[in-house]
Design brief:
Helix content is 71%, strand content 7%. The protein has 196 residues and is mainly α. The chain has one domain (26-170). Strands 1-2 form a two-stranded antiparallel sheet. The chain crosses the membrane at residues 53-73, 118-139, 145-164.
């Protein structure tokens, strides 16, 4: 009787194997393309003068990479890597409704921590580069690149906005959440100063 109970419990070292399997990348192709299109667009933008002297060729290449990135992140990698998706639905009256979904936590197909890190780091870091590029094109007066850079900012930040809304809850207003957080922080600071 005691022997059977011990067989149900994991042996020494098996817990580490379970944790390792959970943090393993289960969707390597989705993880690869999640990072490939966005980093390729940044690299083409940075190396454009070396790759081609034609502005139109570089612009079209970057916009195609950004479009492929937007579609891949919105439709594939968000769903597979972190269990989130968002889309726009138009009803019969012509009203646009934004839908934000997240996979149930108790679902058998839970996400791995490695895939989650890949997704969120790629989703947040790359748009920061496009914002830096936007400021650099304005300050260096390379106005012809401004349309390309703004396309990068808009497409990548649209996915950031959509997935953050999915993560925190689609029905909640992010502006109200920020105000509530800042209000709570301000209240804590006021209470600290009054106690001293």
């Amino acid at each position: 009787d005691v022997f059977q109970d011990s067989q149900d419990a994991p042996l020494f070292g098996e817990e580490d194997e379970i944790v390792r399997l959970k943090s393993k990348v289960r969707h390597p192709l989705a993880s690869f393309f999640h990072l490939f299109f966005r980093t390729s667009a940044i690299l083409v933008y940075l190396l454009c003068d070396l790759l081609s002297s034609r502005f139109i060729v570089c612009m079209v290449t970057i916009i195609l990479l950004l479009s492929c990135d937007f579609w891949t992140v919105k439709n594939i990698s968000g769903r597979l890597l972190v269990g989130l998706r968002w889309w726009n639905q138009v009803d019969e009256d012509g009203k646009s409704h934004w839908m934000f979904e997240s996979r149930k936590q108790h679902s058998l197909n839970t996400t791995s921590s490695a895939e989650s890190r890949i997704f969120w780091l790629g989703l947040i870091v790359c748009p920061i580069f496009w914002i830096i590029f936007a400021f650099s094109t304005i300050f260096s007066l390379k106005i012809k690149w401004l349309a390309v850079v703004l396309m990068g900012v808009v497409l990548q930040w649209a996915n950031v906005y959509g997935y953050v809304r999915c993560k925190v809850g689609g029905k909640s207003n992010l502006g109200n959440m920020a105000k509530n957080y800042l209000g709570a922080q301000l209240f804590k600071q006021v209470m600290k100063t009054e106690e001293q």
